[in-house]
Design goal:
By secondary structure, the protein is of the alpha/beta class. The protein has a single domain (about 5-315), classed as Rossmann fold (3-Layer(aba) Sandwich). It is about 40% helix and about 20% strand.
Amino acid sequence: MSRRDLIDPESRVPLEGLLEVMPGGFNAIPDIVQRRAAVEGMMGAIEVPENLNVAKEDRTIPGPDGEPDITVRIYRPVNASGTLPGIYYIHGGGMILGNIAGEDVNATMICDQVGAVVASVEYRLAPEHPHPAPVEDCYAGLVWMAESAAELGIDPQRLAIYGGSAGGGLTIGTVLLARDRGGPALSFMMPIYPMIDDRNETPSSNEITDIGIWDRAGNIEAWAWYLGGEKPDQYAAPASAEDLSGLPPAFIDVGTVDLFRDEDIAFAQRLMQAGIPTELHVNPGSYHASETFAPEAALSKRIWATRIDALKRALA
């Protein structure tokens, strides 16, 4: 049986459409600049109705010491009053793709449905900017958000961090930096199917080879670009972190047909063993980012409802 046969039938439809247009998926485009253009072109072709409940603003803020400034996109519920919870949002893309524009739909929805101020960070990408540039940008943005709590109208005691895929790995890396540097206190973290293990040794990392979305060969390539030939530390590959104590309560979800399945389940278990309150969801039939590719599928709606509920509970 092909692993593709295990995908939720509704969620499989747009994936098969992608593979018809682009055999082998995005990773079949060897040139990273062309690959980014293809991804951005596809995302830009999706018509998204404007959400009048959310106001958006781009802001330029200081980057890490001695490094370029970075952009954050701030989302605010239009009709909310008083102090709101804050969610720091880190986009996905395997450390080599993606931008804040590509996550506009999800960040807007989270802002609207949770009733929180969301700040989405535009971090530098590999291979042009290997580790530690991406995680240092993410940490700098988090520090700015926490220090700007009064101006942003957020409660610093209700500050969460959210990210999917590479953004999930960067979420955990940023949280580890905040713990180790005595940085901003976070009340909750939601790393979604996080990219956290450069070793590619788990059963699932060997199973997922021809789905068309973040298969084994693409993951190996992305890690090589991200690490730039260096050995990773825990902030690059959080699966290697020896001490997980002192981290905020966590929510992790991953699909059964996702290359990151086993590394994420193992990491959630280690969080629990370290005494970190952790909610883990393994979604049968879900491939990597299937809820983004197939938003109308019943499975996708369940995935999002569970995340939104967890964020509301954590930030109440």
